[in-house]
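Researcher: I'm preparing a figure for a lab meeting and need a structural model of a single chain. I don't have an experimental structure, so a prediction will have to do for now. The sequence is pasted below. Please return the structure as tokens so I can convert it later.
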Amino acid sequence: MTTEKDYVERLEKIIDKQDALLSQLDAKFNQQDSLNEAIIKQNNFLKEDIQKHKNLTRDMNKTVTQQKNVVAKLKKELEDQLKIQQDLHKDYGEVIKQLTDDLEEEQNKNEALIKRQKELESEVEKLNADLTKVKNTLNNAASTFDNDSLKDKVNDSKCPNCGAEVQEGFAFCDSCGTKL
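Model: Understood. Here is the structure written out token by token.
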């Protein structure tokens, strides 16, 4: 037979364990928030970089148009300038290729970040589901403990897990902690 003091001590231990679990979950949520903030910052940097690349491409298009006009005039005026014009086009092609490669690389990085963000969101959903389960367990445990109905009631029932005697109304076995 356990006394009311022992019963209260067991309840306090259970509550302490649950508080520790909630603290761990809070820490994980804080970590997740930090990760989300870092991803948001990275996404903002990527957006800025993409905008810069778009501006560069627009400027390059303007420059290309201007160069084409100059090349057309140079072709008419000077045959010997043809080699220079061809070299300019070659260099321009390399720049465009490099910019295109850079843009594709930035897009791939952005896609990877989006994928990682989705993974993190999935983890947050799992953590939220786990937290909901813990809250439900706590609520169920709290509702099963009615101090007025538990006073001085003793039942000779046994734990299905370890066979230890447990009092009526206990939600967990004193010996092994199995939910009753």
